[in-house]
Design a protein that fits this description.
Elements lengths: L2 E7 L4 H11 L5 E8 L5 H8 L4 E3 L8 H14 L4 E4 L8 H6 L4 E5 L11 H8 L3 E8 L9 E8 L6 H24 L3 E5 L5 E5 L7
Parallel strand pairs: 1-2, 1-4, 2-3, 4-5
Antiparallel strand pairs: 5-6, 6-7, 8-9
Helix pairs in contact: 1-6, 5-6
């Protein structure tokens, strides 16, 4: 299954670039239909333009309510034929408006080993707590903050001399590998989101690859 992706961004877009590079190299069976930023002038928009992908800015500050902002976002996603959403550094919590439209088809990358350190500045939280291992998580998005079912994780060591920035960069290297890989598992039909009667959900991964 080729994923018809919409990528939501708010910043530099290095994870967007990893997705675009994986598509170009044939490692990810997807088409990036549109890149949408809630902040004008960010580097992610230039990355999209360089790759020939439509890029749109919808500044959330220009809308009176979250619903009005998301209605505009949703109209653009529909217009560009988006079937899956990838959140690549998108610094907004999604409301039920978007989550219901793309139920079970919204995927996020977060720079911690969830459920540890959800929310903003996860790398700084990990560094401040003095943990020995940090990392990143790809997960399905639900109505909570970084609380959705986990698809994959990658761990990195926290070295004694690390600054918070050094740790952030070490985690980021793994994000660039993990996010396209998890999306490819979805494209291959290897990842299934199972929703139970208790409203909890879990992820099943087909173990065809011994490294999965």
């Amino acid at each position: 299954m080729t994923l018809e992706l919409g990528v939501l961004v708010s910043g530099s877009g290095s994870n967007l670039q990893a997705i675009l590079d994986a598509i170009d190299a044939g490692r990810l069976d997807a088409r990036c239909r549109v890149v949408l930023s809630n902040r004008p002038g960010v580097l992610a928009l230039e990355r999209a333009r360089t790759a020939g992908v439509p890029s749109i800015t919808i500044d959330h500050k220009q809308f009176p309510t979250r619903q009005a902002f998301e209605e505009r976002v949703l109209s653009e996603l529909r217009a560009h034929g988006v079937e899956w959403l990838a959140l690549a550094g998108f610094m907004r919590v999604l409301s039920p408006l978007l989550l219901d439209e793309y139920r079970g088809r919204v995927v996020n990358i977060h720079p911690s080993l969830l459920p540890a350190f959800p929310g903003v500045d996860a790398q700084g939280q990990a560094h401040a707590h003095g943990v020995k291992l940090a990392g990143c998580t790809v997960h399905f998005v639900d109505s909570g903050v970084d609380s959705g079912p986990i698809i994959a994780q990658a761990a990195v060591p926290v070295l004694p001399a690390d600054s918070a920035e050094e740790l952030r960069l070490r985690i980021l290297e793994q994000e660039h590998v993990l996010f396209p890989q998890a999306l490819q598992w979805i494209a291959e039909g290897r990842v299934r989101l199972i929703e139970g009667g208790d409203r909890r959900a879990r992820v099943l991964i087909d173990p065809r690859d011994p490294d999965a």
